Amino acid sequence: MRLKSLCNNFMSSSRTFALVGNPNTGKTTLFNALTGLRQKVANYPGVTVEKKTGTGHNRHGEEFTVIDLPGAYSLEAKSPDEEVTRAVLHGERADTPKPDAVLCLVDASNLERHLYLATQVMELDLPVIVVVNKTDTAEERGITVATKKLEERLGVPVVPMQANERVGMEALQVALSAEPAKADWKPVEGDTAARYKAIGKLLEGAVARSDEERLTPSDKWDRVLVHPVFGWLILLGILGGLFFTLFSLAGYPMDLIDGAFGWLGEQVETRMADGDLRALITEGIIGGVGGVVIFLPQILILFFFIGLMENTGYLARVSFMMDRLMAGVGLNGKAFVPLLSSYACAIPGIMATRTMESARDRLITTLIAPITSCSARLPVYVMLIALMLPVGTAGQKALVMLGLYVLSILGVYAFAYVFNRTLKQTDKTLLVLELPSYQRPSWREVAMQMFDRGKIFLRRAGTVILGLSIVLWALTTYPKSDSEDGIAQLEHSAAGQIGKTIEPIIEPLGYDWKMGIGLVASFAAREVFVSTMSIIYLGEEAEEDSIRDRMAAETRDDGKPAYDLRTCLSLLVFYVFAMQCLSTVAVTRRETNSWRWAILQVVYLTGFAYLAALATYQVSGFFV
Amino acid sequence: MNDWQTWAAPAVVIVTLAILLWRNLRPAKEGACGEDCDCDKSD
After folding, report:
1. CB distance A467–B1 less than 8 Å?
2. Does the ipTM surpass 0.85?
3. Interval A321-374: pLDDT, tens
4. CA torsion sign, B29 to B34 to B39 to B43?
5. Do the bridges between strand A50-57 and strand A39-43 make them parallel or antiparallel, or are there none, so unpaired?
6. Would you say the pTM of this structure is higher than 0.95?
7. Which of A93, A276, A285, A451 would best serve as a mutation to test chain B binding (most B beta carbons within 10 A)?
8. Number of Cβ pairs closer than 8 Å across A and B?
9. Dihedral of the CA atoms A103, A109, A111, A117 (nearest 10)?
10. Domain boundaries in chain A?
């Protein structure tokens, strides 16, 4: 406690800067450039708004703290995000110190609009440093900003920057090292028009625009990349390339990880006498956790591509294209950010619905978010596709994966349409999406994002998946039978009993009781299906084959392969729609403040998954 | 078969089960959402 209090005292003696700006101004890029890996991410208590703080050093070697505040268009708060920004700047939040100074980030190509927020901040009686970012894009558009002139008029540092290229960092460091000053800016009396008038006066003679309408390289790219036809073809091509890489490149590191876990298991087997604890370690812990960790390369590749698309500005274009479709099913365009986040994980996705103003749209987005193909599905998809196409090329496998993603998008739209027609219409809000200019990716940021996601994946494997693997091993081991036969023991076990009990319900879908164990277990978390299969098939035989080989060799009573094309397709469709994530159920309950919606989500998604998987298995029987 | 392993394995399972239940049933930390989203990590 004393150490913590000493640390707090020390922290409070260093200067705290709040980073403020409109969304898409490059705030996160500047925050990363200033703080590097010295970052801490938490939530503001009471609201699901992310709180990012980090530390850096000025030119004198003195430490400073940066608080990256949520993007806002003004200090007249409309969403929970904007309310946090307003409250922190006013020093109204007990959990966050009032900043000593504010770094106001504005976009050089849209100064007038961005200064709306910046001038409001200047009126708060706080020292300010103005950072004019994206000067390169402004110049491409024929806009030149005389930052020196603005500096003279405002009496505070005005630093031109290209944060993504780290151009201007030196000048910013000089400003951060000096004593911060308050801006020479008179508070604006009156409405929005009066503020824009005052901003216009400030910018008089400080911003020069070329008379000719210039098409920037970004505008030229957009003609193709957001084209109603070519745009979609290019997007499908990019996603196809992503999944192709996923199957063709990830194989080598996956073999290495598989080998490492296999070696670990052998070491335990040679050093420990035969017994329950040894079986728990080799089959439960090493088998269960290893079965999931093996998919780390694919998770990293997925987030490398997502980071690249986000960093270059392409992801904002994808949102723009999707928005056209969203309007078709009556959903607010603001649903995009939450739905896009849900492709990583539905939990932050559902939490991001807080940025939406309409309660009805928030509810619809929350209800459909779990249909997006989150990264936890990836291990299940990869395993089942490999079983389904044992001799398929990487291209064929990528095509199936692409099909699953398309199916999930169709599911999102279909259910958005249904809920839009079912739930009572209240209000309508519009999406204002600012498309950032295309830029060369910052490899450092892409790598940081990959590192973060990889860390979360491994953390989950080392905690939740480890715990569930141990419990699942126990369920497949106890109660013990007198038989030495692995299958007889599994049948006798608690898990076997559960699988046998639900077998009549899942049989029409093409599943046997062992798959039933996997289905039931993965209601806690989807990827547990993979670890369950590892535990079941590792425990069964003592041969040296891989799990995939053993599953491929698994037969039904009639001697036909258990994991044939129809069953794999049916399982894949089930996993596209089924609500198998307890954490998401808990978040839905909290965000909607009702068990009713959480239960509805589980029932409608799992019910639909069952029907869709049933239809897939039965209909495919006519063709296969 | 090792006798000590026969009781050690269920003991590990019981401890794990207790940890899992405690993790899921305890009240959420202040400042965290309490879910498995990595925002409740300590610095």
Report:
1. no
2. no
3. 877 777 778 776 678 778 877 887 788 788 777 767 677 888 999 999 999 998
4. positive
5. antiparallel
6. no
7. A276
8. 82
9. -50
10. 13-214
